[in-house]
Amino acid sequence: DSGVTQTPKHLITATGQRVTLRCSPRSGDLSVYWYQQSLDQGLQFLIQYYNGEERAKGNILERFSAQQFPDLHSELNLSSLELGDSALYFCASSVDSGGTPSSYNEQFFGPGTRLTVL
Amino acid sequence: QKEVEQDPGPLSVPEGAIVSLNCTYSNSAFQYFMWYRQYSRKGPELLMYTYSSGNKEDGRFTAQVDKSSKYISLFIRDSQPSDSATYLCARTSPNKLIFGTGTLLAVQP
């Protein structure tokens, strides 16, 4: 158990709908990362928050947004869902932001949310 | 070209075999390379990380980085059925990790 929790475990919804995925980081971790894992693309970075502020963005669609709350939990909102959004969504957390090339910043991954869009 | 390339497999070996998993990367600016293991329907978990070039050993696992050829390797000795999983290589990048697509390994008893 990594100490990172994610809810729900599974989500089945229809195209055009909106869903919210929730993540609670390990105790003491200030950074939260969201990744999407699909069969053809592998594990892709979406977005990072550090202590409530957005720090980095990957190839996150405009239909997707995230935030980190004062208690450090994070939510990933996916709207106008399409079939292609079906994937595993992982949250990871780390102590700091890992913002330099020479820094090592271990990321601990949660169990993921499996999203199925029908 | 993807930043981290990894043969997706699947790779099937008999129990006790030595397994070699490999990745190549394209950007030398970043110093840390890691291997994650992901069991089916679970989140990735860190196996090992290495800094720059060289080897690192942990029990049956050895991670190797060759910066001159931009090659990352993971060797598993005396492989066990419990090693059956997807193995993901990754490198650090500011504020994120960049992953290969993963290699599915099956160790047959």
Summarize the structure.
The complex is a heterodimer of chains A (about 120) and B (about 110). Chain A has strands at about 5, 10-15, 20-25, 30-40, 40-50, 55, 65-70, 75-80, 85-95, 110, 115.
Would you spell out the secondary-structure blueprint of this structure?
The complex is a heterodimer of chains A (118) and B (109).
Chain A: E1 5-7, E2 10-13, E3 19-24, E4 31-38, E5 42-50, E6 53-57, E7 64-68, E8 74-78, E9 87-94, E10 108-109, E11 113-117
Parallel strand pairs in A: 2-11
Antiparallel strand pairs in A: 1-3, 3-8, 4-5, 4-9, 5-6, 7-8, 9-10, 9-11
Chain B: E1 4-6, E2 11-14, E3 19-25, E4 32-38, E5 45-51, E6 54-58, E7 61-66, E8 71-76, E9 85-93, E10 96-99, E11 103-108
Parallel strand pairs in B: 2-11
Antiparallel strand pairs in B: 1-3, 3-8, 4-5, 4-9, 6-7, 7-8, 9-10, 9-11
Assembly of the depicted chains: heterodimer
Give the termini distance of chain B in whole angstroms. 37 Å
Q: Rg of chain A, please?
A: 14 Å
What's the SSE pattern of chain A?
A: EEEEEEEEEEE
> Could you name the ranges of chain A where pLDDT drops below 50 across 5 or more consecutive residues?
none
Mean pLDDT of chain B: 90
Q: Helix proportion of residues of chain B, in percent?
A: under 10%
Alpha-carbon distance between the two ends of chain A: 31 Å
Mean pLDDT of chain A: 93
- The structural class of chain A is mainly beta
